[in-house]
Amino acid sequence: ANGKAPSKTETDLWVIFRALRDSRTQFGLRSNHMQTLQAMLSFLKPGQGETVFASNFEICRRVGGIDERTLRRHIDRFLELGFMTRHDSPNRKRYRVRSSGGQCISYGLSLAPLMERADELMAMAQEVENRRRDCIFVRKQILTRLTQLEEFWPESSFPSEVRKTLRRKLSLPEYRALLAQAEAEC
């Protein structure tokens, strides 16, 4: 390789994206919102800042052909949630202007607010993952208890009722309540 490791910002960008993707339901975001954000992130060039200069047309193409109204709705949702800010140029085009001294003005969609919320998003994604694992754990405890019940009290209808309930995706408190019921049955 050329010996140049990816910068911290470059790496963090995708780590932050994954954290938001994993906790998206907490913000009312769907997978298609995340596809739009992923496409926007893919336009960022290493070391060139966090502003997306691509046109709506180009972003739509990269997302996979969504229509422009859908893109605008997705952008509005990210603006609303505070994950991006819009810096409009006088003609509403997206571009960067540099002075001879190297100063620059960027017009476009800034993803800096997303980067600034990295810690919050990482913590939220971890919380979501912990809850997911705890649900699986408690669910397995319930199933173990049901097997014991079926073995010792084959005439009981409780296990089959609980198994029907377990077909749905339950919240952690619901799983815990079911476990308490199953333990009370023993």
Task: List the main descriptive attributes of the protein structure presented here.
single chain; 186 residues; alpha+beta; four-stranded antiparallel β-sheet; 59% helix; elongated; disordered N terminus
Q: How far is the first residue's CA from the last residue's CA?
A: 63 Å
Number of helices: 8
CA-atom Rg in angstroms: 24 Å
> What characterizes the major β-sheet?
4 strands, antiparallel
This entry's quaternary arrangement is single chain
How many β strands by DSSP? Answer: 4
**What value does the average pLDDT take?**
90
The helix/strand order is HHEHHEEEHHHH
- Computed structural class: alpha+beta
Instruction: Outline the low-pLDDT stretches.
Output: 1-7
Measured as a percent range, the helix fraction is 55-70%
Gross morphology is elongated
Estimate what percentage of residues fall within beta strands.
5-15%
